[in-house]
Design goal:
Length: 191
């Protein structure tokens, strides 16, 4: 992503990333750009499996497996991201902390821009395991299953939860609202 001719220009486009095995990196796959397909990859023992970064559109993340025993590991992450037409389809996430951690994903979007469909989620930390979506808009989670995770939408809008299954020890849905002055301070993403 660069400034070209006085305006921002996306320089990553038309990539296929498939059938890779990635072991032990801090960030397994970082996605930014247009027309990106990330399919059938296995990401193991990474701090963060697949990260959506900055801007992009027409992104498909399909049948990826993200697994890590690291206590603070996360599956899919995004921070201050503005993306359109993103799909996470199938696959499995089994991590130490949060299978999803989105902070301000499309915070100004007014329509659905991210659909998570038929994904299996598991958190090894059953106390804090969450599909954590904060200050984000346009996120749909459907036909998915979670084991030991709660789905938490915090200060978010235009979200949809449809036909999902959660199992104990920790399952359910939190729809929370914090006023900005009540928001805990500290390092970004650490509540």
């Amino acid at each position: 992503y660069w400034l070209v001719n006085g305006g921002p220009t996306q320089l990553n486009y038309n990539f296929d990333v498939s059938d890779n095995q990635i072991i032990g990196y801090a960030g397994g796959i970082i996605v930014s750009g247009n027309n990106i397909n990330v399919v059938d990859n296995v990401i193991s023992e990474s701090s963060s499996g697949i990260t959506l970064r900055e801007e992009g559109e027409n992104i498909v993340l399909k049948n990826n497996v993200i697994e890590s025993s690291e206590p603070g590991s996360k599956g899919y992450t995004a921070v201050l991201t503005d993306m359109k037409n993103v799909s996470i389809i199938g696959g499995r996430v089994d991590v130490g902390f949060r299978p999803i951690q989105f902070d301000r994903f499309n915070q100004n979007a007014m329509s659905t821009e991210l659909v998570i469909d038929a994904v299996s989620f598991k958190a090894k930390n059953a106390i804090n395991g969450q599909l954590w979506i904060s200050g984000s808009n346009g996120v749909t989670i459907k036909n998915s299953a979670g084991e030991g995770v709660r789905t938490s939408f915090i200060n978010s809008s235009t979200g949809t939860l449809e036909n999902n299954v959660g199992t104990l020890p920790r399952a359910g849905i939190d729809l929370e609202s914090f006023r900005e002055r009540d928001r805990p301070t500290g390092e970004l993403l650490q509540w």
